[in-house]
Design brief:
With 466 residues, the chain is α/β, with parallel strands linked by helices.
Length: 466
């Protein structure tokens, strides 16, 4: 049955929350998927148009006079895309870039054909899978940009990401001073003190994930609270905390790894969160829980605030040139890590591709094998979590291990604040109680998850019963 929502025909539209054990989609009016498609994505696209319009002079200065025609083309394309979403039109194939083997638009087009076969019609924005169509929106925007001659490297989210960092400078400087102090005094820390600091660094990293421009639909965000003083206050908002198990895993020698201990971090947001990623990574190297850290940014501008390689370099350069001595010192330490290959930046297109993580072994076996070399894989943020659990509205007591559906190239740690209608591994009754207190608790970013499982036949370190 078709229902009208603000004069838009949406077949099978239901005035309910997403049922359990189905994937999130825009046909459920009380879901974040519906709100995103109806309200958030159009606002985000409008702000991208505004960015192009406001940034014309800088674009001309950087890319030349000919760039202005391409800006007009992008604005026209985005306006059309915005209308297609608002009126629940079909998703369209991406235009292909000739002779570029690194561009995966053809894989996206193949996936569109596959979804068409599964859905028995060309996918419609509200009726298809939310995870698919939302990622498709960012990917087709990126594709239209790379097809341009002059502005192909332009990132319309750059200014917002940089503001997310500078708006958090007070908190960043406080945390940086703390990090430098802990690293400098590492030899004086007892095992118990090291463990206590480890728990803090995991929490710094968790709450850094609250700073998400996609959640705010592009409105400026920043970290305004004291990052150290606030930790204990926020403990009550961590719905699942497997930090003890992470500590036990990382301090135990890995007999299966003959060379070095690698930790992979699939990063999420630039700005304050990226800084907390650096803090956690530096601490893990300092206490010798890792010999090497591999950072995985996004290949394209993605979900407004997701970090790219350019954002990583900009953050380090900003810190190097800051007036704050701690930031300078930390930037020099980070540069030294990269120079000596202790930290590396790994560019992998899979994170902006159309496939779920279970499909990695089939669609990108090299990446799957690469991740298998790690002692721990840290997936940051809400989108990575949605991909891990396949954007299924699992019952909340479902174990994290079960929700991964077999995707375990190595032990997996998810660090995420809850900003969409997926959440697993929490105690019985907690989700229901939170709904009684706040109907929108899953959209707020207020609550955190720190969840781990292990790979292969190893004993699971996760507390399955919580």
């Amino acid at each position: 049955m078709n229902q009208k929502s603000n004069s838009v025909d949406i077949r099978d539209l239901q005035d309910i929350r997403t049922p359990f054990n189905v994937r999130l989609a825009g046909i459920y009016k009380r879901s974040f998927a519906y709100v995103t498609l109806k309200d958030r994505l159009p606002v985000i696209l409008t702000k991208i148009i505004d960015t192009f319009s406001r940034d014309k002079e800088n674009i001309i200065e950087k890319y030349g006079e000919n760039a202005i025609e391409e800006v007009k083309k992008m604005i026209g394309f985005i306006s059309k895309l915005k209308n297609e979403i608002a009126t629940n039109k079909t998703l369209k194939p991406m235009r292909l870039l000739p002779d570029d083997s690194t561009n995966d638009a053809e894989e996206w087009n193949k996936f569109l054909i596959k979804r068409t076969e599964i859905e028995k019609e060309i996918p419609l924005w509200f009726n298809t899978l939310w995870l698919y169509c939302e990622c498709y929106m960012y990917r087709i925007l990126a594709q239209e940009l790379v097809l341009m001659k002059y502005i192909k490297t332009y990132d319309p989210f750059t200014k917002s990401k940089q503001n997310a960092f500078t708006n958090s400078l007070i908190s960043i400087e406080i945390l940086c001073s703390y990090v430098i102090d802990v690293i400098s005094n590492k030899k004086n820390l007892s095992i118990m003190e090291t463990k206590e600091e480890f728990m803090k660094f995991i929490k710094f990293n968790l709450w850094g994930n609250q700073c998400d421009l996609s959640l705010s639909a592009g409105a400026d965000v920043g970290q305004a609270t004291h990052p150290i003083q606030i930790l204990k206050v926020l403990d009550k908002d961590i719905l699942a905390n497997n930090s003890e198990f992470i500590w036990n895993l990382l301090r135990k020698p890995d007999k299966n790894k003959l060379d070095i201990n690698i930790i992979d971090i699939i990063i999420d947001n630039a700005g304050y969160e990226l800084f907390t990623d650096f803090c956690l990574a530096a601490f893990l190297i300092t206490i010798k829980f890792a010999d090497k850290i591999r950072f995985y940014p996004k290949l394209y501008p993605w979900y407004i605030s997701d970090a790219s390689i350019n954002d990583i370099h900009w953050t380090i350069d900003y810190m190097k040139n800051a007036s704050n001595e701690c930031l300078k010192k930390f930037a020099n330490l980070i540069e030294n890590y990269f120079k000596n290959n202790i930290w590396t930046i790994e560019i992998e297109p899979y994170w902006t591709g159309p496939y779920d993580l279970v499909g990695m072994k089939e669609h990108d076996p090299k990446l799957h094998a690469k991740l298998s070399d790690a002692k721990l894989i840290i997936f940051k943020g809400d989108l990575n979590y949605r991909k891990l659990v396949d954007d299924i509205n699992w019952e909340y007591t479902t174990s994290f291990k079960k929700a991964l559906r077999g995707f375990e190239p190595a032990p997996i740690l998810a660090i995420r604040t809850v900003k969409s209608d997926v959440c697993v591994g929490i105690p019985p009754g907690v989700g229901e109680k939170l709904f009684e207190e706040d109907e929108y608790w899953m959209w707020s970013g207020k609550y955190g998850l720190i969840q781990i499982t292990t790979a292969g036949n190893c004993q699971c370190l996760m507390n399955e019963t919580y």
